[in-house]
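If you are new to this repository, start here. Below is one unmodified record pulled from the training split, so you can see the exact layout before writing a loader.
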Amino acid sequence: MSRWRGSTRTHTSAARVITGIGALFAFIEVLYLVMLLAGANAANGFFVFIRSLADPLALFWPGLFPVSNADLAVILNYGLAAVFWLVVSGIVARLVGR
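And here is the target side for that same chain:
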């Protein structure tokens, strides 16, 4: 019986790590979104660092929905990417947790 219990803990730990990684990716996307909407200095080193992380994590979302409003485009591009990472990591974590 203890053998099964240890296996469950391993699956639970792996699911938590996967969920945490997805949450981190979503946080990076939301942070970049907020920085863009707030008009952060594009020459700042921290902004450049976050942009270098957020752009590849946005995957296929930027430009998927052509919108004339720049603020709405940013929200759609990076907000949907954040939701995507939360949903996908939740699904994968649930599969691993079984």
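Two things worth knowing about this chain: The chain has a mean pLDDT of 88. The radius of gyration is 17 Å.
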